[in-house]
Amino acid sequence: MKNITFYLLTLCCLLFPSACFGSGETDSTTTPVNNPSALIRVADPTVVVWQGKYYLTGTSGDSSKGFTLLESTDMTHWTTAGQALTKGDQTFGTKGFWAPQIVKWGDNKWVMAYTANEQVAIAWADKLSGPYRQTTVGAWDDTEKNIDPFIFRDDDGQCYLYHVRFNNGNYIWVARVDKTTLAIDRSSLRQCLQCTEKWENTGAYPSSPIMEGPTVIKHGSKYYLFYSANHFMSPDYSVGYAVADSPLGPWTKAKDSPIISRNIVGENGSGHGDFFLDDSGNPWYVYHVHASSSKATPRQTRFVRLKFESSDLGYDKVTADPSTVVKPVIVSQ
């Protein structure tokens, strides 16, 4: 869950690299890091794989400026690739720039879905690195608060926008959207999940129910919805998944959730990220973790390899391999 106070207090950000990549302890013992002060501190991360490179962006420590883009060839060593979206540059929002997603859209267009002012917004660019701008500056659906957007395009070309709405807690919703403009089809709007499982609200950090950070993929004939639960300040912030026969659901929660948690990857607050395939077609999940076992911020970025295995559950079971955890570092600004 995003919290404006948290972001104002966070000491590190990509936009001010000397602060963003300052020293900090980490509890993970996987993938040794020679210079812990260079660890990337990006929350709600997302990755795009394009032309042999990995591109990373997300919520920075100073979330009032927009989104900075990083690039890498190996997922471990990263350089700054510039400012992808800037506040006030034909863009909606004045604060709380959170949880972006970048998607290739046709031959010569890219789209960024993001949160600002606790509203989803959509911006466009002619190249992956941006700048992302809006023709008409505004929110995607200004009828109520909504955050954490994720665009999914099905095999038939129909597009869906998953996002989070507030109702005594945070819940994931979906709506069909126009495949050209991404305008909402309000008749299709529906809630995806309820908070029903013990792992989804452990009470380690008391809060209203929270389900957020959706990512949706199609694997075989099934749709997989990855999501995070618990408050982001909780050490039990974790990732689980649900499966459906349609992008609109109904969704069946996986019995083996969570698949990423402190008990699995060894770091507190492990959640809210994105699914992607590396250049070899291997599935990965990028996510953030707490700064250490004793403090949540500034949150750090991690990668972990996923595996799909056949099961008798009617869908392939997803697991994360903790031995593959990558702790990315910034090597050039």
What's the overall average pLDDT, rounded?
90
Proportion in β-strands: 35-45%
In sequence order, what are the helices and strands, one letter per element? HHEEEEEEEEEEEEEEEHEEEEE
Please tally the β strands and state the result: 20
Strand order of the largest sheet: 1-2-3-4-20
Task: Sum up the overall morphology in one term.
Answer: globular
Distance between the termini: 29 Å
Task: Classify the helix fraction into a percent range.
Answer: under 10%
Number of helices: 3
Low-confidence stretches: 1-32
Q: Class by helix and strand content?
A: mainly beta
What's the story with the biggest beta sheet? 5 strands, mixed
Rg calc: 18 Å
Describe the protein's architecture and organization.
It is a single chain. With 333 residues, the chain is mostly beta strands. The chain is 4% helix and 43% strand. It has helices at residues 4-9, 17-20, 262-265, and strands at residues 43-50, 53-59, 66-72, 77-86, 98-104, 110-116, 119-125, 146-153, 159-166, 170-177, 190-191, 211-219, 222-229, 238-244, 252-253, 271-277, 283-289, 300-309, 317-326, 329-332. Strands 1-2-3-4-20 form a five-stranded mixed beta sheet, with no helix packed on it. The protein has a four-stranded antiparallel beta sheet with strand order 8-9-10-11, with no helix packed on it. Strands 12-13-14-15 form a four-stranded antiparallel beta sheet, with no helix packed on it. β14 (238-244) and β15 (252-253) form a beta hairpin. The chain is globular and about 45 Å long. The two termini are 29 Å apart. The model is unreliable at 1-32 (pLDDT under 50).
